[in-house]
From TrEMBL:
<dbReference type="InterPro" id="IPR007533">
    <property type="entry name" value="Cyt_c_oxidase_assmbl_CtaG"/>
</dbReference>
<protein>
    <recommendedName>
        <fullName>Cytochrome c oxidase assembly protein CtaG</fullName>
    </recommendedName>
</protein>
<comment type="similarity">
    <text>Belongs to the COX11/CtaG family.</text>
</comment>
<feature type="transmembrane region" description="Helical">
    <location>
        <begin position="26"/>
        <end position="44"/>
    </location>
</feature>
<keyword id="KW-0812">Transmembrane</keyword>
<dbReference type="GO" id="GO:0005886">
    <property type="term" value="C:plasma membrane"/>
</dbReference>
<keyword id="KW-0186">Copper</keyword>
<keyword id="KW-0735">Signal-anchor</keyword>
<keyword id="KW-1133">Transmembrane helix</keyword>
<dbReference type="InterPro" id="IPR023471">
    <property type="entry name" value="CtaG/Cox11_dom_sf"/>
</dbReference>
<dbReference type="Pfam" id="PF04442">
    <property type="entry name" value="CtaG_Cox11"/>
</dbReference>
<keyword id="KW-0472">Membrane</keyword>
<dbReference type="GO" id="GO:0005507">
    <property type="term" value="F:copper ion binding"/>
</dbReference>
<comment type="function">
    <text>Exerts its effect at some terminal stage of cytochrome c oxidase synthesis, probably by being involved in the insertion of the copper B into subunit I.</text>
</comment>
Amino acid sequence: MSTDDDKANINTSTGISNNNKTVRKLLLVVVAMFGFGFALVPLYDVFCDITGLNGKTNDTAATYEAGGIDKLRTVKVQFITRNAKGIPWEFEPVINEISVHPGEMKLVSFYAKNNASHDIIGQAVPSVSPGLAANYFHKIECFCFTQQPLAAGKDVEMSLQFYVDLELPADINTLTLSYTLYDITEKSS
């Protein structure tokens, strides 16, 4: 005959065994989630490359091929800027929007002023929306290709030379080019 103490010991050891299994399973889930988090960035980049979503533009200069200008079509290109947290610069487009004909090369400028009491190196990161349009927006020359050192209190006009591809889908009539400016001074040292 078993006593109540024997039953309690059996239930306790079974409970400890179940707890150990649960802890192991939870630890495995945590490790898997941690690994998945690291894999998300390259997976997201591949997804954006395949689908054309997110409006990532090429970070290399395009070459302008004079293949004609579609004077029957006009596309509005809007310019938006923003500063990442912690960069004390004024940063804005000289003009907020421009009309272009596909195939036509345009030159626009952006204004930046370092309001800090120390020198800062900035880097602008572009994005085009709608995301599909990023494949048809070609930068020939852009301040975003290089780091922008700016002394304390100084200002500068930075240029962007671009064209919109003749193959831009007919249903896209407006493109928005957005730049986010980051302080990369410490990373450049």
